[in-house]
Amino acid sequence: MKLRNNPVLHALVRKEWIVLRRDPFGLGVLFLMPALFILVMSLALQDVMDRRRTDIREVLWLDQDGSYFAAELLDRVSGQSPLQFRRIEGEAGLQQLGTGYAVASVLIPPGLTQRLDPDAEGPLLTLAFDPVLDTPSRARLTAEIQGNLLGLKAEYLAEDLLGLPQAEAELMRKALRPEGVALDIRGLPRQQDHPAALPDATQQSVPAWIVFAMFFVIMPLSTSVIGERGTGTLQRLAMINATPATLLLAKVPLYLGITLLQATLMLAIGMWLVPLLGGAPLHLNSPLWALLPITLATGFAAIGVALLIATVARSAVQATTIGGAANLLMAAVSGIMVPRAVMPDSLQLIGSVSPMAWAVDGYWDIILRQSPPSASYPECAALLILGSVCMGLASRWLKMENE
């Protein structure tokens, strides 16, 4: 089937837009329902989710230098930061970096005092973050370490240059610029089972209700499919050689565009409206386009499932009832209502086979775990396969009806 220069397909796509405009209620629900859920749940779950996350924010501190400055740095930083610091030692300590449940680690190699000298080159220490630590916490810890290193460097230079000529004092001022306390900042290996990978209330609500809203595309799609069947439109289109596959494919572009608009609006609510109401803002550590693959794949899967239900059902009421019940059941076990990490193991296993769970995991790969878009490709592939299989079955069902 040729998609380009196909007048029948183009006409059918235009027809879908006309039909959708006549159902403003169904269209409005697709946007209003998830928006309200995001606002309510982001605020209602904030205290509960935050309490689960505060006890697991630990920083490993490995001091291989043993100098006064290294010990003083730990005292000052730990007194300012809300994170918990745990000292580790020796080769065993080196092996703990990047393991366990720490969200960050600090490694001070030997020779810190020498590296405080303005003529020394290279980073003063190595700071590594687990992907689950949010950007504001990273920035705050980095700033606390840099600020205290500046203070220690000032003390070191003041003692070393006391009573020296003006030229030496100028050297000291140059050494105390922020770029004079360079850090080696790295990422720790990603840990799928890290307790700190639990989302906050907004990270939980936004992707979850985006996915939930996409799968409720069954409402306007069932109206379209059932209406075409009831008025004989499908039979008349079949007489002009419009195949069932063409009929179904014509519905994809418009409704895929709707799912993109849903995701964009919900992300905007999480980033800007939720914090205005006192909730935690949604921080995207990747550009917005990084969420495009998982959004398109989720939208395609939702459309495929909706088309299969709409073609098998005999009425719009039946389609929306079956679709709504199936969506609620999937949402209950997929991490939509609450994170799967806090569910019993048996429910987690059941939820792992749900397409909603695949979609939420794909969003969390980027939003929560701060991974590149490629990390969500396995979930994208599973969702695209599901959508294709459902559309194939729906096409076969329509073909059998028209024979």
Please describe what this structure looks like.
- It is a single chain.
- With 403 residues, the protein is of the alpha/beta class.
- The chain contains 18 helices and five strands.
- The chain has helices at 7-21, 24-44, 46-54, 68-80, 90-96, 112-115, 135-161, 166-175, 201-215, 218-230, 233-239, 244-249, 252-276, 292-312, 316-333, 345-351, 355-367, 377-402, and strands spanning 58-63, 84-88, 102-108, 126-129, 184-187.
- Strands 2-1-3-4-5 form a five-stranded mixed sheet.
- Strand 1 (58-63), helix 4 (68-80) and strand 2 (84-88) form a beta-alpha-beta unit.
- Mean pLDDT is 78; it is low at 161-173 and 192-196.
